[in-house]
């Protein structure tokens, strides 16, 4: 069979836009000659629609779009994901796929396994489907599944395994509509899983995934077809729309199929997430405060890739503490990137604030308060520029500093999107080098100098934080793997240090609670997928 | 039977503290002569523990605390809520209650119905219990349920109804351990429900609820006992700890049992939520920016009630636009409240920012940018005071303005807790009058003058917003009831106005995403219970 893969970028809630994309893809694929066209999970609503699903009219409007779509289909069937209003169940919605053909919705398939962990809240919204997984088409038996239905592998989370039922029916083709959020390394994990699935079901498999960014989530596409032995037949591009045919009879050798290396994958993911967040929220311009440091440099470089150099504004905001090299590095970066660049000193604002506060503060020594005033003066100016010119302020903090609270709320945390807030500092370095691998975009000095927040004279990150290699390893254990202090110490880290890092992570929940949404790049990002109480006293 | 009600205030994650409270209550109630002592749902962990439940060691530590508690019990049994680590299920936890007596855990009961809507994410954490609901004690058959188990009333959300099984077993007493978050009007709703439950089960009922604030949630206590006809036997105080006996054989006439009026309920709820958020997060002092307006006045008055006048700092931050009456009203409020009061003019900061920005802004007319600079200058100073003196900054925005974005991110939205962010403006007025009902605390002028943000000369809220009566009615329909534009217009509101309000609500999702946690007082608060995508294009 020749399967039309509609790996296209939907926008949450944009019912007209998504329908229009669906129709264009249908026409295009029919023109190329195809037996069946498959779209991603919940394509018509965009994924994740979240509490929009609680609006009854939203579901009615989706149904209307689905009928419009079905009416335009001809003899070539299309299988498209949509949230289906249900009667008599609560939640009153199914996560469904409609088989549309000859102007009608012929059959509807409903997702059975509803992920409710990490970023997923599907039992909040959906009831579990119980209807048939099968349809006969062109004398072949097709099994239709939606995302999680195949991600089971004897997970005790679920009491049923659709794959058992599918295997026993010996289908000729297994289809999966997916909206599988990307994180670093997920591509290979997903391919391995699907290969096991194909082998267990003993039939070829076609997997069509969403592509694009919606809020924190990045969908990588990378739709896959494989034969019954798990041998890859075709793989669509990652991080791009792909409207193309996967020919399951194509037996040419695909040994050359490969996925991107991790650094390139990370770069492309962030660029896609940044572009989609910006564009889908109606901005065309991005704004970055350039400190001369590596985080803002990487953020600005990604913004230029996502939005174009003409659409990125860089602003250097030196204080009396800022070193010459910081200002030079910021300017050099802006020149390399070819972006609009401004320098706005903050000292007069810092001084005015200090003057107003002096009657209150006169008997108190300087402390973190004064550091924060600098960061907040920068935030104030950047937000003013953002407001005046309608440019989305991009926050530049990385995961390591957000984890331990090495950042100022309402200061450097100001912004609409936290581009690299799920990228640990050690990875920021390797990403910077990767961005520079063809030509130097990020000044070498920015990468090579010791990281510093420059909120005190001669301050260095290493004054208050351990080496980032060590910090990131502890954070990975504590934040992503939910390991206990004692278990982390057993891995060979110094007890005092582990306790300090854990304490900082816990203490700074309140800052992260008010952080800008950040693009998810790891299995466990701060944000929607991690829900720690703000006020809590568990010591580890 | 004489039931000991342990309506006590636990703190999320404070395993030692919660255990200690549990033991104190046990000893105290045993001393009063009781047949059985009942604690709230998930008492040992605090509610809601959220992703702390993903830490294996957390569950191990809870088990350890439970064993310690059980060891201290004597012949009087205690029924206490705790998250129970499970083997072989995923999620690997049950929401359980342990029957402890004579030094041992005798039997464990597991919650069957797991709410996963609004603020609840219980299927994320818990597996549904399947074990017995019954225990024999003193020749009586007791049925044990946990919160949602009784909140069903033919809700198609659940396929089983524990109450059916309970009714068929004809128990002598039905017990419910609860952590039921409060909102305005919930008291009566809950009593009505429990009366129906008692009648359906044809047996007396004892309901023990949590009390206290944890993050956004306020638990009101108000533990209830009633006879088999639903007649109230005893009701514990609202918004306070209560360690007392409910004597189910007490047949004295309880016609005098009454619940608080709604205004008083709202006041007490906010005071409790504010106090617990502040104290449990380790602060003892609160800080409020006093504009002379009603929102900050109400917030400051609640803060004084919660923390004591000696622990509240009020700061007036006038600009050149601020009216004399604003400054006077702020000062008068501070005098009435007897709090530390400072005046810090912001104009020099605003001027410094304008000066630095002038090269960039010289060809652009003033707009919302300049208004935001004022709000952000205030935020900068307030956060400096918060940092320097370790006082928790309380945000003063109400629900109406947060809904339509009539507030400045990183400006007046700065703060650790949004005290009245779930109180619509019309309710803020009635709350202010209620606070003043015995003596004038909030200056009369503050209540009577037309609301104004004073970010432009002679600005009034009514310049850009409809009357708050109308606005709040539209917001109630749109935000809390998820009604569509057309349905709201059908209720008699002007189409253009409805569309404007809805557009503003949708547009400002990004601001609310970075807002401070706010105390929940309505059935649907912004925050954990409302999960709208930030970037989305659904038009209503």
Specify Rg of chain A, calculated over alpha carbons.
25 Å
Helix and strand content put the structural class of chain A at alpha/beta
User: For the report, how would you describe the main beta sheet of chain A?
Assistant: 6 strands, mixed
How many runs of DSSP E, i.e. beta strands of chain A?
19
β-sheet strand percentage of chain A: 15-25%
The CATH architecture classification of the largest domain in chain A is 4-Layer Sandwich
Largest interface: A-B, 91 and 91 residues
Domain count of chain A = 2
Report helical residue fraction of chain A.
25-40%
Q: What is the CATH homology-level superfamily of the largest domain in chain A?
A: Carbon-nitrogen hydrolase
CATH fold field value of the largest domain in chain A: Nitrilase/N-carbamoyl-D-aminoacid amidohydrolase
What is the name of the CATH class of the largest domain in chain A?
A: Alpha Beta
Assign an overall shape of chain A.
elongated
Work out the oligomeric state of the chains in this entry: homodimer
Residue runs with pLDDT of under 50 for 5 or more positions of chain A: none
Terminal residue distance of chain A: 54 Å
Mean pLDDT score of chain A: 95
Structure annotation, total helices of chain A: 18
Strand order of the largest sheet of chain A: 5-4-3-2-1-14
């Amino acid at each position: 069979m020749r399967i039309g893969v509609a790996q296209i970028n939907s926008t949450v809630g944009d019912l007209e836009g998504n329908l229009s994309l669906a129709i264009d893809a249908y026409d295009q694929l029919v023109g190329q000659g195809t037996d069946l066209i498959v779209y991603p999970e919940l394509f018509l609503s965009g994924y994740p629609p979240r509490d929009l699903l609680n609006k009854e009219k939203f579901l009615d409007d989706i149904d209307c779009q689905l009928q419009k779509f079905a009416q335009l289909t001809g003899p070539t069937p299309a299988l498209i994901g949509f949230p289906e209003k249900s009667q008599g169940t609560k939640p009153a919605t199914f996560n469904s796929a409609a088989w549309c053909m000859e102007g009608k919705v012929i059959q509807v398939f409903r997702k059975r396994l509803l992920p409710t962990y990490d970023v997923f809240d599907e039992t909040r919204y959906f009831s579990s489907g119980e209807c048939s997984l099968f349809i006969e088409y062109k004398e072949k038996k097709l099994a239709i599944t939606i995302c999680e239905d195949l991600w089971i592998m004897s997970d005790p989370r679920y009491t049923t395994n659709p794959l058992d039922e599918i295997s026993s029916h010996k289908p000729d083709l297994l289809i999966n509509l997916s909206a599988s959020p990307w994180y670093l390394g997920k591509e290979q994990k997903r391919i391995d899983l699907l290969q096991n699935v194909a082998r267990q079901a003993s039939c070829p498999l076609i997997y069509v995934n969403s592509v694009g960014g919606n809020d924190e989530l990045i969908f990588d596409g990378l739709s896959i077809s494989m034969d019954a032995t798990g041998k890859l037949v075709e793989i669509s591009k990652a991080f791009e729309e792909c409207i193309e045919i996967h020919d399951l009879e194509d037996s040419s050798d695909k040994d050359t199929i490969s996925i991107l290396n991790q650094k390139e994958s990370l770069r492309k993911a962030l660029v896609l997430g940044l572009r989609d967040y910006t564009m889908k929220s109606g901005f065309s311009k991005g704004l970055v405060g350039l400190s001369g440091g590596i985080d803002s440099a990487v953020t600005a470089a990604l913004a230029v890739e996502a939005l174009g150099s003409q659409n990125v504004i860089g602003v250097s905001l030196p204080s009396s503490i800022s070193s010459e090299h910081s200002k030079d590095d910021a300017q050099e970066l802006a020149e390399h990137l070819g972006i609009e660049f401004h320098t706005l000193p903050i000292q007069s604002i810092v001084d005015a604030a200090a003057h107003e506060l002096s009657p209150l503060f006169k008997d108190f020594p300087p402390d973190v308060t004064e550091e924060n005033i600098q960061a907040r003066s920068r935030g104030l100016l950047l937000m003013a520029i953002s407001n005046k010119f309608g440019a989305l302020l991009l926050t530049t903090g990385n995961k390591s500093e957000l984890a331990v609270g090495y950042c100022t709320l309402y200061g450097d945390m100001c912004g609409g999107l936290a581009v690299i807030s799920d990228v640990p500092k050690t990875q920021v370095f390797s990403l910077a080098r990767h961005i520079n691998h063809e030509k130097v975009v990020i000044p070498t000095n920015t990468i090579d100098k010791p990281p510093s927040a420059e909120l005190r004279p001669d301050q260095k990150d290493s004054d208050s934080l351990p080496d980032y290699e060590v910090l990131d390893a502890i954070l990975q254990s504590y934040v992503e793997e939910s390991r206990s202090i004692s278990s982390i110490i057993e891995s060979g880290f110094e007890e005092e240090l582990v306790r300090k890092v854990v304490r900082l992570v816990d203490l700074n929940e309140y800052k992260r609670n008010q952080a800008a949404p950040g693009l998810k790049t790891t299995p466990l990002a701060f944000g929607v997928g991690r829900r720690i109480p703000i006020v809590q006293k568990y010591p580890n």
